[in-house]
Amino acid sequence: MKVLTITGYKSMELGIFKADDHKISFIKTAIKKRLLSFIDEGLEWVLISGQMGVELWAGEVVLELREMYAIKLGVIPPFENQESRWPEPIQQLYQSLVLEADFHQPLYKGEYKGGFQFQAKNEWFAKKSDACLILLDEEFPGSNRFFYEKAKRTNNYPIYLITPSDLDDAVEEQRMADPDYWK
To answer: Cα–Cα distance between 149 and 170 in angstroms, integer?
Structure first.
C-alpha cells in the first residue's frame, strides 16, 4: 500500500469542542501507531479531505512523522473555502495544514454547491487510494458512515478501523508512559 485515505468523526461528533481537549492526544496516538506500521510496510502518501476532527488531527500526525519518515500529506477538500464557517482556531489549523501539505487541491472550484460534492469526494478518495483508515464505532457511526459505506462497496479496497478499543489502548499507553503513574 502506497496511498492511504484517513477519515473519521468530526470533532463535535466526539464531544470535542476545544482545540486543546486532552482526548485529541489519545486519538492522535492511535493514528500515529497505525501509521507507523503502514510506513514500515511502504506507505508513501496520506490523503485527507481536511474536514474538522479526525482528518485534521491525522494531518498533524503526518506532518510530525514527516520529520523522520518519507511520508507525504495530500489535502483534497470537496470544494474551496470549506473551512469558512468553522471556529477560528480550527480554521487556522486547517490553513496551516494546507500550507504545509505536499499537495493541496479542491475537487470542485468555488464554494459549496450541494451534497453531490461530498459524494464525489468519497468516490474520488476510494479510487485514488489503496486503502483507508477510519476512526469508527460501527454501533454509532456518524458522518464517517458515508465514506465507510462507499469503501465497503469498492472492490479490493482494504478498510482499517481505529475502534473504541484502540482508543482505550491509547489511553492506557499514555497513562503508563507517565512516570507519576508508577509512583
So the answer is: 26
**Dist. CA 74–CA 161, nearest whole Å:** 20
What is the rounded CA–CA span in Å between residue 57 and residue 60?
Answer: 5
Does pLDDT of 162 surpass 70? yes
* 3-182 fold: Rossmann fold (3.40.50)
Instruction: Give the C-alpha separation, 83 to 30, whole Å.
Output: 25
Cell of 43: 506507505
Task: Tell me the pTM.
Answer: 0.94
Detail the DSSP E strand segments found in 85-166. Answer: 103-104, 131-135, 159-162
Q: Where are the domains of the chain?
A: 3-182
- What single-letter amino acid sits at 85? R
